[in-house]
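I would like you to sit down with the pair of lines that follows and say whether C-alpha coordinates and residues agree.
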Amino acid sequence: MGLFDRSKSKELSTRPSLLLTGDPGDALLDAARRYDPEVHPWHGRLVFSNGVLLFGPIEVTSQIEQDAALPAGATVAYYTGVAAQRTSERRAESAKQDDAQKLLHGLAVRLGGKTHLVDSPSNLALLASVYSEQAPAPDEVVAALRPYGGEPKVEDQKEDTYSISGKGTYFYTAYWSPRLFVNREEPAALGKLRSGKLHHWDLNTGVAAKKAARELCLKVGEAALALAATSGGMAVDWLGFRIDAPGDMLLR
Protein backbone atom coordinates (compact mmCIF):
# COMPACT_ATOMS: atom_id res chain seq x y z
CA MET A 1 0.00 0.00 0.00
CA GLY A 2 1.42 3.42 -0.93
CA LEU A 3 1.58 6.52 1.20
CA PHE A 4 -1.19 9.05 1.00
CA ASP A 5 -1.15 12.69 2.06
CA ARG A 6 -4.47 13.33 3.77
CA SER A 7 -4.19 14.98 7.14
CA LYS A 8 -5.09 12.56 9.91
CA SER A 9 -4.02 14.72 12.83
CA LYS A 10 -7.30 14.30 14.68
CA GLU A 11 -7.28 10.52 14.42
CA LEU A 12 -3.62 10.23 15.40
CA SER A 13 -4.15 12.51 18.38
CA THR A 14 -7.04 10.45 19.77
CA ARG A 15 -6.64 6.86 18.56
CA PRO A 16 -4.07 4.18 19.42
CA SER A 17 -1.44 4.31 16.70
CA LEU A 18 1.64 2.61 15.28
CA LEU A 19 4.57 4.88 14.41
CA LEU A 20 7.38 3.83 12.07
CA THR A 21 10.53 5.53 10.78
CA GLY A 22 9.89 4.39 7.20
CA ASP A 23 7.36 2.76 4.91
CA PRO A 24 7.32 -0.94 5.94
CA GLY A 25 6.18 -2.13 2.53
CA ASP A 26 5.14 -5.78 2.46
CA ALA A 27 6.57 -6.40 5.93
CA LEU A 28 3.47 -4.87 7.54
CA LEU A 29 1.07 -7.22 5.80
CA ASP A 30 3.36 -10.18 6.43
CA ALA A 31 3.37 -9.40 10.16
CA ALA A 32 -0.38 -8.77 10.15
CA ARG A 33 -0.97 -12.23 8.65
CA ARG A 34 0.73 -13.80 11.65
CA TYR A 35 -2.01 -12.12 13.70
CA ASP A 36 -4.80 -13.00 11.25
CA PRO A 37 -4.21 -15.09 8.11
CA GLU A 38 -7.52 -13.78 6.74
CA VAL A 39 -6.64 -10.07 7.01
CA HIS A 40 -7.22 -8.14 3.79
CA PRO A 41 -6.70 -4.56 2.58
CA TRP A 42 -9.79 -2.52 1.74
CA HIS A 43 -9.98 1.19 0.87
CA GLY A 44 -6.98 2.42 2.87
CA ARG A 45 -7.29 0.05 5.78
CA LEU A 46 -6.57 -3.52 6.82
CA VAL A 47 -9.65 -5.45 7.91
CA PHE A 48 -9.20 -8.17 10.53
CA SER A 49 -11.70 -10.94 11.19
CA ASN A 50 -12.02 -10.03 14.89
CA GLY A 51 -13.49 -6.60 14.13
CA VAL A 52 -10.25 -4.60 14.29
CA LEU A 53 -9.34 -2.10 11.56
CA LEU A 54 -5.91 -0.62 10.83
CA PHE A 55 -5.93 2.61 8.81
CA GLY A 56 -2.93 3.86 6.87
CA PRO A 57 -0.21 4.37 5.97
CA ILE A 58 -0.20 8.07 6.76
CA GLU A 59 2.78 10.27 5.93
CA VAL A 60 3.76 12.05 9.15
CA THR A 61 4.59 15.62 8.24
CA SER A 62 5.99 18.11 10.73
CA GLN A 63 2.52 19.67 10.92
CA ILE A 64 0.84 16.34 11.71
CA GLU A 65 3.53 15.55 14.27
CA GLN A 66 2.87 18.87 16.00
CA ASP A 67 -0.94 18.78 15.77
CA ALA A 68 -1.21 15.18 16.98
CA ALA A 69 1.49 15.59 19.65
CA LEU A 70 3.42 12.62 18.27
CA PRO A 71 6.90 11.74 19.50
CA ALA A 72 9.65 12.88 17.13
CA GLY A 73 11.14 10.59 14.52
CA ALA A 74 8.16 8.89 12.89
CA THR A 75 7.62 9.29 9.17
CA VAL A 76 4.75 6.82 8.75
CA ALA A 77 1.78 6.10 11.01
CA TYR A 78 -1.23 3.81 11.24
CA TYR A 79 -4.20 4.08 13.60
CA THR A 80 -6.84 1.60 14.69
CA GLY A 81 -10.60 1.49 14.58
CA VAL A 82 -13.33 -1.08 15.14
CA ALA A 83 -15.73 -2.46 12.57
CA ALA A 84 -19.43 -3.19 12.73
CA GLN A 85 -20.00 -6.96 12.67
CA ARG A 86 -22.74 -9.41 11.87
CA THR A 87 -24.84 -10.48 14.85
CA SER A 88 -23.24 -13.95 14.93
CA GLU A 89 -19.75 -12.39 15.12
CA ARG A 90 -20.53 -9.34 17.23
CA ARG A 91 -18.09 -8.59 20.02
CA ALA A 92 -18.00 -5.95 22.74
CA GLU A 93 -16.35 -2.69 21.67
CA SER A 94 -14.00 -2.94 24.65
CA ALA A 95 -12.83 -6.40 23.52
CA LYS A 96 -12.08 -5.12 20.02
CA GLN A 97 -10.23 -2.12 21.44
CA ASP A 98 -8.13 -4.40 23.66
CA ASP A 99 -7.29 -6.56 20.65
CA ALA A 100 -6.37 -3.46 18.64
CA GLN A 101 -3.83 -2.43 21.27
CA LYS A 102 -2.31 -5.91 21.32
CA LEU A 103 -2.09 -5.84 17.53
CA LEU A 104 -0.31 -2.48 17.56
CA HIS A 105 2.17 -3.61 20.20
CA GLY A 106 2.88 -6.84 18.32
CA LEU A 107 3.41 -4.98 15.05
CA ALA A 108 5.66 -2.41 16.73
CA VAL A 109 8.04 -5.01 18.17
CA ARG A 110 8.14 -6.88 14.84
CA LEU A 111 8.68 -3.80 12.67
CA GLY A 112 10.95 -1.77 14.93
CA GLY A 113 8.32 0.88 15.59
CA LYS A 114 6.64 2.58 18.52
CA THR A 115 3.07 2.84 19.72
CA HIS A 116 1.15 5.98 20.66
CA LEU A 117 -1.80 6.09 23.10
CA VAL A 118 -1.44 2.36 23.80
CA ASP A 119 -1.59 0.84 27.28
CA SER A 120 1.36 -1.55 27.15
CA PRO A 121 0.15 -5.16 26.83
CA SER A 122 3.60 -6.14 28.13
CA ASN A 123 2.11 -5.63 31.59
CA LEU A 124 0.00 -8.74 30.93
CA ALA A 125 1.28 -12.15 32.01
CA LEU A 126 3.56 -14.00 29.61
CA LEU A 127 1.59 -16.94 28.28
CA ALA A 128 1.20 -19.11 25.23
CA SER A 129 -2.00 -20.78 24.09
CA VAL A 130 -2.41 -23.96 22.06
CA TYR A 131 -5.54 -24.79 20.06
CA SER A 132 -6.32 -28.08 18.36
CA GLU A 133 -9.17 -30.00 16.77
CA GLN A 134 -8.06 -33.08 18.66
CA ALA A 135 -6.84 -33.64 22.20
CA PRO A 136 -4.21 -36.07 23.43
CA ALA A 137 -4.95 -37.68 26.76
CA PRO A 138 -3.93 -35.57 29.79
CA ASP A 139 -1.02 -37.93 30.52
CA GLU A 140 0.26 -37.37 26.95
CA VAL A 141 0.10 -33.62 27.51
CA VAL A 142 2.12 -34.06 30.71
CA ALA A 143 4.69 -36.09 28.77
CA ALA A 144 4.96 -33.35 26.14
CA LEU A 145 5.51 -30.67 28.80
CA ARG A 146 7.83 -32.60 31.15
CA PRO A 147 11.08 -31.77 29.28
CA TYR A 148 10.50 -28.07 30.01
CA GLY A 149 11.00 -28.21 33.74
CA GLY A 150 9.75 -29.56 37.04
CA GLU A 151 7.47 -32.44 37.86
CA PRO A 152 4.19 -31.66 36.07
CA LYS A 153 1.09 -33.64 36.92
CA VAL A 154 -2.64 -33.45 36.20
CA GLU A 155 -4.71 -31.68 38.86
CA ASP A 156 -8.35 -30.70 39.35
CA GLN A 157 -9.56 -32.86 36.45
CA LYS A 158 -13.24 -32.38 35.62
CA GLU A 159 -15.44 -33.17 32.67
CA ASP A 160 -14.41 -30.14 30.59
CA THR A 161 -11.31 -28.81 32.34
CA TYR A 162 -8.12 -29.81 34.05
CA SER A 163 -4.84 -28.18 35.05
CA ILE A 164 -1.21 -29.26 35.03
CA SER A 165 1.27 -28.02 37.59
CA GLY A 166 3.75 -29.42 40.05
CA LYS A 167 6.98 -28.92 41.92
CA GLY A 168 9.55 -26.90 39.98
CA THR A 169 7.37 -26.18 36.94
CA TYR A 170 7.91 -22.84 35.21
CA PHE A 171 4.30 -22.36 34.15
CA TYR A 172 0.76 -23.45 34.99
CA THR A 173 -1.22 -25.17 32.24
CA ALA A 174 -5.00 -24.97 32.05
CA TYR A 175 -7.21 -26.93 29.64
CA TRP A 176 -10.73 -26.23 28.34
CA SER A 177 -12.76 -28.64 26.21
CA PRO A 178 -14.47 -27.67 22.92
CA ARG A 179 -17.76 -27.29 24.78
CA LEU A 180 -16.33 -24.16 26.41
CA PHE A 181 -14.92 -22.72 23.18
CA VAL A 182 -16.41 -19.34 22.15
CA ASN A 183 -15.40 -18.79 18.52
CA ARG A 184 -15.73 -15.01 18.32
CA GLU A 185 -13.56 -14.45 21.41
CA GLU A 186 -10.65 -16.63 20.31
CA PRO A 187 -7.54 -15.38 18.45
CA ALA A 188 -7.90 -14.36 14.82
CA ALA A 189 -4.57 -16.15 14.26
CA LEU A 190 -6.51 -19.42 14.19
CA GLY A 191 -7.90 -18.51 10.77
CA LYS A 192 -10.42 -21.05 9.49
CA LEU A 193 -9.88 -23.24 12.58
CA ARG A 194 -11.71 -20.54 14.51
CA SER A 195 -15.02 -21.58 12.94
CA GLY A 196 -14.94 -24.94 14.72
CA LYS A 197 -14.94 -26.03 18.34
CA LEU A 198 -11.37 -26.46 19.53
CA HIS A 199 -9.47 -27.87 22.49
CA HIS A 200 -7.60 -25.08 24.26
CA TRP A 201 -4.60 -25.02 26.60
CA ASP A 202 -3.00 -21.96 28.24
CA LEU A 203 0.60 -22.10 29.48
CA ASN A 204 0.70 -19.20 31.94
CA THR A 205 3.86 -18.06 33.72
CA GLY A 206 2.16 -15.55 36.02
CA VAL A 207 5.05 -13.15 35.22
CA ALA A 208 4.50 -9.86 33.37
CA ALA A 209 5.78 -10.24 29.81
CA LYS A 210 8.03 -7.20 30.05
CA LYS A 211 9.70 -8.62 33.17
CA ALA A 212 10.02 -12.22 32.02
CA ALA A 213 13.55 -13.58 31.71
CA ARG A 214 14.78 -14.64 28.29
CA GLU A 215 15.13 -18.25 29.46
CA LEU A 216 11.51 -18.31 30.62
CA CYS A 217 10.24 -16.84 27.33
CA LEU A 218 12.10 -19.48 25.32
CA LYS A 219 11.02 -22.30 27.62
CA VAL A 220 7.33 -21.39 27.27
CA GLY A 221 7.71 -21.07 23.50
CA GLU A 222 9.38 -24.49 23.27
CA ALA A 223 6.72 -26.10 25.46
CA ALA A 224 3.85 -24.57 23.51
CA LEU A 225 5.30 -25.76 20.20
CA ALA A 226 5.85 -29.24 21.66
CA LEU A 227 2.22 -29.38 22.78
CA ALA A 228 1.08 -28.08 19.39
CA ALA A 229 3.06 -30.85 17.70
CA THR A 230 1.63 -33.48 20.04
CA SER A 231 -1.95 -32.32 19.50
CA GLY A 232 -1.63 -31.38 15.82
CA GLY A 233 -2.62 -27.83 16.72
CA MET A 234 -1.38 -24.23 16.66
CA ALA A 235 0.45 -22.13 19.26
CA VAL A 236 -0.42 -18.45 19.76
CA ASP A 237 1.26 -15.84 21.98
CA TRP A 238 -0.44 -13.59 24.54
CA LEU A 239 -0.79 -10.81 21.96
CA GLY A 240 -2.61 -13.09 19.51
CA PHE A 241 0.26 -13.74 17.05
CA ARG A 242 1.06 -17.23 15.77
CA ILE A 243 4.17 -18.82 17.31
CA ASP A 244 6.44 -20.48 14.75
CA ALA A 245 9.66 -20.64 16.79
CA PRO A 246 10.52 -20.33 20.52
CA GLY A 247 12.19 -16.98 19.83
CA ASP A 248 8.82 -15.50 18.86
CA MET A 249 8.09 -15.30 22.60
CA LEU A 250 10.93 -12.77 22.94
CA LEU A 251 8.93 -10.26 20.85
CA ARG A 252 7.40 -8.42 23.79
